[in-house]
């Protein structure tokens, strides 16, 4: 281990990833596998078969007590009162100016017990922010260090997980979860969620059982040519679905309305930053997060300028790649709202050359 990586947090499976040939890189303070073979090969393995991501760097907070729901309602934009036990909700934390502190998942166990799953790079920031609102009748517990998280994604994911549990996981509706025994390991949380659009599950397990579960997943998946998948393919898979990446497409300075997340912003209840977002909704937003496809050869990258036909800057790329599924350059970025309609012609400035593109409706990959 180099001096540069010695301060990074190591996941329970670091040595396993290294033994599999994983290229380990720093990410959000953790040492993570970016790829094992190639990004394209791993991307297509998930789209067409099944792959496993170790995303144990994600953060998990328990929110318990009589005031648990009221706290979640105050700090998040979506309406958590609509949740029933066993359901998951996508939402975001907003600051007092309406900017996005983080996007996250809320799991409801009962009326007085919830779990929040937050982005790895925001664990401490989110923890401090949520605690600043915590009332006396709520207990917050950071269980991140004691949890490993594996995402089993792809059309064959259900076949792999079914071999390891007696549950009918194929019948689980999207964004629901159960706690059950998997591969002989008790109290594994099986969630019908994911970040790829390819279908599958996320398994939360105690860190002490992480290596065993990983090994059992690969034993069960051998017949389906299961592959370990790194961060590189995770990024291209989520981008094809138009899913936001915190720090790239959304941050403290962007609002849910600008980011196309109005559907998780419920003005029927109170939440932090609501007044400013209501005002923004009334006056209209000046920039909007869009998807675009290049009509010429080229690969868009974050921070490239988006310009109009006159060469005037109208926005900036936040995420971009060469789509392994579509074989063309795709990306997301904020543009002036006058150019945000699907079909609008824009240009991406790549190495000082304007490459023609068009705004498209997300996701890029239609399911």
Q: What is the 3D form?
A: globular
Beta-strand percentage range: 25-35%
**Secondary-structure element sequence?**
EHEEHEEHEEEHEEHEEEHEHHEEEEEE
Let me know the largest β-sheet.
Answer: 6 strands, mixed
CATH topology of the domain at 286-360: Elongation Factor Tu (Ef-tu), domain 3
Which percent range fits the helix content?
10-25%
Under the CATH scheme, which class of the domain at 286-360? Mainly Beta
CATH architecture group name of the domain at 286-360: Beta Barrel
Average pLDDT, all residues: 97
Compute the number of strand runs: 20
Record the SSE blueprint:
Elements: E1 9-10, H1 14-19, E2 23-27, E3 30-35, H2 39-48, E4 51-54, E5 59-64, H3 68-75, E6 88-94, E7 100-110, E8 113-118, H4 123-131, E9 139-142, E10 147-153, H5 157-162, E11 177-182, E12 185-191, E13 200-206, H6 210-221, E14 227-229, H7 231-240, H8 274-283, E15 287-294, E16 305-307, E17 313-322, E18 329-336, E19 345-350, E20 353-360
Parallel strand pairs: 1-3, 4-14
Antiparallel strand pairs: 2-3, 4-10, 5-8, 5-9, 6-7, 7-8, 10-13, 11-12, 12-13, 15-18, 15-20, 16-17, 16-19, 17-18, 19-20
Helix pairs in contact: 2-7
């Amino acid at each position: 281990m180099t001096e540069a990586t010695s301060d990074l947090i190591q996941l329970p499976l670091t040595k396993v990833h290294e033994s599999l040939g994983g290229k380990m890189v720093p990410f959000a303070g953790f040492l993570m596998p970016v790829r094992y073979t190639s990004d394209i090969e791993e991307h297509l393995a998930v789209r067409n078969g099944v792959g496993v991501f170790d995303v144990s760097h994600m953060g998990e907070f328990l929110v318990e007590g009589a005031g648990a729901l009221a706290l979640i309602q105050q700090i998040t934009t979506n309406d958590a009162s609509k949740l029933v036990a066993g359901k998951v909700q996508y939402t975001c934390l907003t600051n007092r100016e309406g900017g996005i502190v983080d996007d996250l998942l809320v799991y409801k166990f009962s009326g007085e017990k919830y779990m929040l799953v937050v982005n790895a790079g925001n664990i401490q920031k989110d923890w401090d922010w949520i605690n600043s609102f915590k009332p006396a009748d709520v207990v917050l517990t950071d269980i991140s260090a004691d949890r490993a998280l594996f995402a089993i994604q792809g059309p064959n994911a259900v076949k792999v997980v079914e071999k390891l549990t007696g549950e009918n996981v194929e019948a689980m509706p999207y964004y629901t979860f159960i706690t059950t025994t998997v591969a002989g390991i008790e109290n594994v949380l099986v969630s019908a969620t994911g970040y790829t659009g390819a279908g599958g599950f996320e398994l939360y397990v105690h860190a002490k059982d992480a290596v065993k579960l990983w090994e059992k997943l690969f034993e069960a998946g051998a017949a389906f040519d299961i592959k370990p998948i790194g961060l590189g393919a995770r990024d291209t898979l989520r981008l094809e679905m138009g899913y936001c990446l915190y720090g790239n497409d959304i941050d403290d300075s962007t609002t849910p309305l600008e980011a196309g997340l109005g559907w998780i912003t419920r003005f029927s209840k109170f939440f932090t930053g609501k007044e400013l977002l209501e005002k923004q909704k009334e006056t209209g937003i000046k920039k909007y997060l869009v998807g675009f496809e290049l009509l010429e050869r080229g690969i868009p990258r974050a921070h490239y300028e988006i310009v109009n036909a006159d060469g005037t800057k109208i926005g900036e790329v936040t995420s971009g790649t060469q789509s392994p599924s579509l074989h063309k350059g795709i990306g997301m970025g904020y543009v002036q709202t006058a150019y945000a309609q699907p079909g609008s012609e824009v240009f991406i400035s790549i190495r000082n050359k304007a490459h023609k593109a068009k705004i498209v409706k997300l996701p890029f990959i239609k399911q």
